[in-house]
Amino acid sequence: MSTERTAPAPLSACDEPLAARYDVALLDLDGVVYVGPDPVPDAAENLRKAAKEGLRIGYITNNASRPARVVAEHLASFGLDVIADDVVTSAQAAAKLVAAEFPQRSPVLVVGGEGLTSALEEYGLKPVRSSDSHPVAVVQGFHPDVNWVMLADGAHAINEGAKWYATNLDLTIPTAAGMAPGNGTLVQAIRAAVDVDPIVAGKPETPLLETSIERLGAERPLMIGDRLDSDIEGANAVGIPSLWVATGVHDAHDLARAPKHQRPTYVAAGLGALAEKQPGVTVERGRHTCGGWTAEVVNNAVSVKGEGEPYDGLRAILSAVWAAVDAPAKPVAKAAKNAGRGRRPLPRPAAEPGSIAIDAALHRVGLDS
Ligand SMILES: [Mg+2]
């Protein structure tokens, strides 16, 4: 059973290196360890250093196509010290969900590839390839070989009463040639022919992270990722701290626009942050200070003063933007005047995240994007 957890507030301080504070890092792969076919510069070196400090490194992937062993071999080719037990896939998380619901050896229809069949076997289930085998469940995960016959057979089994599980709903999948349709598109194909929604294992849903925490024996886990709507949202949903790194798809503008449930505990340029403390942000009369930088929102733009580390500047900027966006609505002056003549004041919406200009402030602290 999972214990109840609550993630620390966004932009919390950590007064010791992150690698010392936490016992297990749950690392997203693409955008953190590698970007497409290329390793992220210094990632392997930073992870090796963190491991020496006692941090266990876990690798967490929504991609269900490959077994953990094959993912580990791929990661090792980037110079990382990794074995199959360090990797947790959404296929394993989905298999665990099925195993919790149905007896051992139950037939489960696979709409996917080797990553799913090996995960189902690992959890004591019997992967089958046809609805003629009367499957109790359908498990769907990305694999390049998924075809119309498999999708149609999956829909047939679900309509016959089999319970439907999806490893993830990612609409795109990064490939060496660029973005391609992901598992979410194939789930939509089946969804068009059935009347139920699938149970989802992968980020930002909680089963993959819960399974990872359990398999890696984490007591003080730290999620590390590049996507706010997947890695960071998932960490917040499970109630664990998160580190956003700038090496992937989302950037400082995305952070500024992030709704509360997608805001990270820590922000950093990359995995070098594992060896560092994280400074907090202090707030006084609308001024947000981190390190040598102080930011405030004036007329829907962030103004920042000072000098120092660029990421301290980013923390001050984000703190100021989020406070402005979260501020309760105030009546506008004109409406307040009208109220004096017996009309009700119109509530002014809290500042729109997109409407607060941050470009000049980012430039000022040295973070042009
Ligand atoms: Mg990623």
UniProtKB/TrEMBL annotation:
SUPFAM superfamilies: HAD-like
GO terms, molecular function: phosphatase activity
Keyword Hydrolase: yes
Transmembrane segments: none
Keyword Hydrolase: yes
GO CC annotations, alphabetized: cytoplasm
All copies of domain GCN5-related N-acetyltransferase-like, residue ranges: 290-335
One Pfam family this sequence matches: Hydrolase_like
Keywords: Hydrolase
Protein name per UniProt: HAD-IIA family hydrolase
Organism field: Kribbella turkmenica
Record lineage: Bacteria, Bacillati, Actinomycetota, Actinomycetes, Propionibacteriales
